[in-house]
Each structure stands twice: as C-alpha cells, then as structure tokens.
Amino acid sequence: MRKKLPIMLPKLSRLRGWRHLQTRILMIWTLVAVLFFGVAGAVDPLEDLSRTIRNKIRDHEASGQVVVVGIDTLAMQDRGNWPWTYGDYAELVRKLDKAGARRIVFDIKTSNNATAEDRQLLADALKQADDKVYLTANFVADSSTGRTVTQIPPAEFRQHARLVNSNFWINGYNAVQTTPYALKVGDLALPSIAAELSGETGKVGEDFPIDYSVNLYSIPYISAADVLRQSRELDRVKGKDVIIGLNEPSIGQRHSILGHGLAASTFIVAVGTETLIEGRPIQLGWLPPLLFAFLLCAIIVYAPRRAYRVAAFALGMLLLLAGPIALETMRIFMNYMPAIFMLGCLACHYAWSRHRQSFQDKGMFNEISGLPNLNALRQEAQDCREGLIAARIHNYAEVATALPAAREKDLADQISMRLSLGNGARKIYHGDEGIFMWLVPEETIATVGDQLSALHAIFRSPANIDGRNIDLSITFGVDADPGRSMQSRMSSALLAMHEAANAGEKWRVYDPSRLEATEWKVSLLGELDAAIDSGEVWVAFQPKLDLIKDEVCGAEALVRWTHPEKGAINPEEFILAAEKHDRIEKLTEHVLNTAVEAAARINRESGPFDIAVNLSPRLVGTDGLRPMVASALKRFGLPPERLILEITETAAMSSATEAMDELHALRAMGLQLSIDDYGTGFSTLDYLKRCPSSEIKIDRSFIRVLGTSRSDRIMVNSTIELAHSLGEVVVAEGIEDSETLQLLKQMGCDKAQGFLIGRPMPIEALHDFLARFESSSAAA
Questions:
Q1: Rg (Cα) of the chain, in Å, rounded?
Q2: 3-state secondary structure at position 359
C-alpha cells in the first residue's frame, strides 16, 4: 500500500479540485436562478408564508388610535341598502364630530349623482366639522384599455374637507403587501390615508411595507348603525381618528391579509396606518440578504474543514430564520426567501455529495469479506499496465448456502488468505459469486502459469469451516493485454477463466486475437435489421422435382446474407442468433414476402408452382404469424394451396396445445404444412395422426447413405409407405446422385430435392432454370 500512496494522493487531490469546481459552478448558476426568481417574484408565495409565521410570532395589539366605522349588514338593515345618500354621510359626520372624533376619513368613493338637497346637507356637515373630515380621491386603471379614470369629490365638498388617496397595489394573489405614502390623482399629489393620519411623509410613489403582525381583531370597530343610533359605542371615538368604510361581504373590495384571510380594504388601510404610527418602516428588498447568503456560500465552499462549513451554514440559517424577527421588531423589513433558497441549494448539494460519497465508499467493499470489490478495482486501476488474474470458486454459492450466515466471512477469509500466500501478498479484490481478482507485475506475466499451478495445488486441501472440511474447486483466467479499459480486461479474464473450466484446465490466458470475432458476434444482430433493409439479406430458391410427373413442381426458399466486408455469412449463425434474441419475426416476414411474390409470378407465367418457406418454432403460437401469412398471400395474389410452411420435426413434436391449435388454423387457411428433417426426432404414429401436416420431408442424413446402408433403405421405404397410408406427400432432400434418385422412384417417393436437381439460386437463375427444364422436357 505504501507504493500506491503517492499515486492515490494526486488522484484524490484532483477529485477534490473537481468537486470544488462543481460547487462553484453550482453557486454561480444558483445565484443566476435566484436573481431571476427574485425579479420575477416566483418565490413570493414562500416569502408570504415565512412572513406570516413571523407575524404570528410578533403578534401584538393595535395602538387603538384608529377606529374603523363599518357600513355593514347591521347598518344597511337600519338605513337601507347601498349606496347611501349624502344625507346619510352628513349624519355620520355630525354625530362623530359631536362624539369628539379627532379626524374623520371617508374611505368611500363620492360621486356627483345626488340631489341638490343631499349635496347641501353634506356640505353643511363638512363645514361644521371645521376641517377634521377627509374625503377620498383615487384613480381606477382599466387593464383592458390601459386608460386611467380619476375619481375626485365635487368642488363644494373640497372647500371644507381635505383630500387623501386610498389606492394601494394588489399582487397576483389578491393580497396587499405595501401601500404608498402619496400618489398623484390627476394633477393632485395626495397623501395616503395612512400617511396623513400617522404624520409620516414620503415621496410620491414611494411604498412602505404593511406590518400585519398588528392584530387585526384589536383594531376598534363600530358599526355605522351604532353611530347613527348614538349608542354607547359612540363614546369610543372620542379623541380618535375614524376611518369610515364598507364592511359588507356582498359589496366593496375584499383582499387577502396574511394570516387572517379575506378582509375589507378599510381594515388594510387601518393596519397600514398602525404600521406608520409604530414608526417609519425601512424596506430593503431581497438583495442584502442574498449578498449575505452568497458570502456565506463562499465561506462554506472554501472552508478548510467540514466543521467550519457546518458552523457557517448553521449560523447563516439561524440568522436568516431568526434574524428577521428581531429586524422587523426594529421596523426593518426585507425579503429573505431568495437567500434561504440559495443557502438551501448549497446545503442540499453538500448533503447529496456526502450521501453519494458515503454510498460510493460503501460500494467499494465487499459486504461479506470487507475486501475491496470489483468497483474498487475499476477505479484504482484505470490506467494500470499490470497483468490481471481472475479466480473463481465454482462451488462458492453452494458452500455459502450450506454454511450458517455468520460463517460465510470465514469462508471468504480462508480463500483470500490462500490466494495471498500464492500471489506474493498482492491486493485481492472480492466480487460476487466467489470471484476474486488481483494484479500482477507486467514482468511476471510470462511465468504466471507456475504461480497459478501452485495456487491450484494449495486449493486441493479442503478448507476447514466450523469444524467441517469443505472442498473448493478453483479455476483461473489471465488477461495480459494492457491496451484496453479495465472493465474490458476484467471481462476478458473472466471469459478465459470460464473457458479453462469448460476445458478442464487449471488456467487459461485470454487470446486478444479473438476480440474481433467476439465484436462481430455482438454486432451481428445490430447489423441484421439494416442488412434486410439494404438487400444484403436475400432469398435463394432450391428447385424440387415431382418424381411421378418428372417435372419441377416447386422450390424451397432459403435465406442468405452476403456481407459487404465478410462475404457470405453462415445462415445457421445469424438464424440461431435471431431466434435466440427474438428477432426472427422480421427475418421470416422478409423471406415469406419475397418467396410468395416469386411464386405468384411463376404461377401466373408457367402454371402450378409450390413454394416452401421454413417456419421458426418460436413463431408457432404467436399472435402475429397468421396475419403475416394472410397478408403476404393477399398482397401478391398467391393461392394458399401453393404455399408450404416447413416446421422441424423436433419443434413440431414439442409444440404445446396452443401451438398445435395454431398449426390447425394455418392448415384451415388452405396452405400446406410440411414436417422438415423427419427421422431426426421422435415422432410417434399418434403424433403423425394428430398433426395437420400434408407433407413429410425425410432428412438428408438418411438419403445420402441410401445406396450403401440397408437399414436406412428399409427405414426410408417404411416411412414412405406409412406417410402414404396417412395421406401425406413424401419429399426426400439431399439427393446428390442418380442412383439415389432411382431408388427413391422405385420406393414411390413423391418429390425430390438436392444438388442433383438444382442448387440454391437467385430468383433470376430460377427463372432460367425453369425455362431450360421446360425446353429439355419438350425436346424429349
């Protein structure tokens, strides 16, 4: 391990540097995102939630200096529905003035639609109040047209009353967070109700935050009905500022108040006034907390110790969560959510990084033995040029299952100890299923066989686990090619080990020259689909001879693949691969369509001609087979009786009930079924009776020795007789000489196929073959 230390330290240093770079990039992108969210107001709902919590903590009573007189349900029952007359307003002014109200503010819009008598009543009442009444002037912005309409009380009222503004800004959540000190209504610069009653002044358009920690229910409230009745409630307005407004749910504006729900706009004006009475608030926005959070993030990123980072994060979150309560008590208001969001993102990043690192560290060791596992080998030996050895205890799973769970570690320890004794105390990596690996110096690869033979001898002695002697079977594989990735080399060593075990050898070295062949096998299926589309995969036709009529009666369609670089590919190689990996359907469909198209043309031009297509056992019983066949017959206009589907004898016999039903359904479509390779399986008479075949095809292995083997002649002859008794046509394949052909004619065989009659050929050659055959027959 001491030799490894100088190598590992730079790797660790680079890893830490990469992680710091990732963190800095995260900080920058988080800052950009937070700036965007802050400007767009995307975090406003969270900001409102946090401010609501702080308001609940800071909840306190109103000063009582402001009294709300509400025109509510009770008042409307007494005086009539809204709108009231100016005479009603005048009566309110007189009675509030008489009760000793300090100032009276109408948070109600006035209009010019009134009788002259009512207008005079209100003007007289305002005059008698001696400038203590305030009327509202405001503006209404039409969002659809962009026009602004001002609403200013009539001139005769303005002579004896002051004007204030009642506009405030409503956000997208129907909530009012801020209200202005003053606004311009037309050409008039008017203070807001809150600014006028509190005595605080500000620039036109300057806002201040409303402090909703003022308990809404502590604001004195009197129904306008009590004022008009001159009840005892009226005594509460003496020396107080009175705001008259609507408080009937069915009329007037109602807005959301944080922590309280919907309330009449008059109460928002009252809370805004209480805010300024407590002191002028300072609104700093969200940039100062964000800069503070960014500074904390920088400290966390560059802190040399984890303890410093944790302390900085804890301090930052404490200040961002608890600090606002103290600051807002001192009338300093800010938006903290962007800063909390940024700090939270960094914290989540570190938490996730730590979790991932912990998981990775845990994933670097085998849980049973505690030895480094194969993941550790991949990381530690990425650029290694040493030799790699893989060993496997073949009965490891069996032995581990038989042992108590606590004893599997003893088994792994004994195996690793024996391997260490024989490999020069090299570091051992423990994988699953009894796999162990280690690296050996490049210069010792040439003599590694002696080492492995010695190790194999050590394992001949049984291992003693829990008092029981247990035999262990071990085989070794070696990869000595440093030019590839460690993952690839590990696979190569395991492959060599498996080959050695299958061959009964102690060990084997992987041969790099096999890599190209292995890559081709891996890519074969990937190229097959493209080869079908490009025409590399084509169909050859081998003629079949009717021995009774002595004429060509059909052909068998055989698939071929001519690779542009590798030439002709063995059909068995790619057909078996396609069957194994469920890619046979497209290949079969290609052959079927090509064969049916060719047969349909020959039938139109030359008369009856059968075409035989091999059917993969994997397709029998699938939902797509019958539609595929029906589509091909219909598309090219081939009569069903001219199509023969060949299925191997072994596959047909092993077919489940569903597959047998499928064969009957295909037969019912009118096409023919042939049992291919007959004689190589285990057909019974009962099976032949149940199978809906129309043809039996005797395997070439019996036909080739027909002239020299008496037993094969007897078997072929009896097969022909049996098939004829069942109404089956018999086809002999693999005929290569005239003597065999004559013997088959004497036995009564119906059809023949083989090199003597014709080799597999392209469709163009088949047309020439048929033309020559017809010419020679006519000449004879």
A1: 48
A2: helix
Q: Which segment of 354-363, 488-497, 667-676 scores lowest on mean pLDDT?
A: 354-363
**Structure token digits, residue 656:** 């489940």
Per the CB < 8 A criterion, the answer to whether 346 and 26 are in contact is yes
Query: What's the confidence (pLDDT) of residue 387?
Result: 86
In tens, the pLDDT along 160-175 reads 899 999 888 887 777 8
Q: How far apart are CA 661 and CA 628, in angstroms?
A: 17
DSSP result, 596-639: HHHHHHHHHHHS--EEEEE--GGGTT-TTHHHHHHHHHHHHT--
In angstroms, the CA 731 to CA 532 distance is 30
Lowest mean pLDDT of 103-112, 263-272, 491-500, 757-766, name the range: 103-112
Q: What are the tokens at 473?
A: 């079977």
Using DSSP's 3-state secondary structure scheme, residue 692 falls into coil
**491 vs 474: CA distance, rounded Å:** 18
CA gap 427, 410 in Å, rounded: 18
How many CB atoms neighbour CB 127 within 10 A?
A: 15
Q: Cα–Cα distance between 254 and 157 in angstroms, integer?
A: 27
Q: 422-436 b/e with 16+ CB inside 10 Å = b?
A: bbeeebbbbbeebbb
Residue from 553, 558, 569, 478 nearest 520 by CA: 569
64-73 mean pLDDT: 92
Cβ burial, residue 775 (10 Å; 0-12/13-18/19+): exposed
With both helix axes pointing from N to C terminus, report the angle between 306-329 and 287-302 in degrees, rounded to the nearest 10. Answer: 160
* End-to-end alpha carbon distance in the chain: 91
pTM surpassing 0.85?
no
b/e for 452-470, b at 16 or more Cβ within 10 A? Answer: beebbeebeeebebeeeeb
| Secondary structure (3-state) at 671 | coil
Backbone angles phi, psi at 162, to 5 degrees: -90, 155
The bridge status of strand 254-257 relative to strand 261-264 is antiparallel
Q: How many CA atoms are closer than 13 Å to the CA of 586, on its beta-carbon side?
A: 13
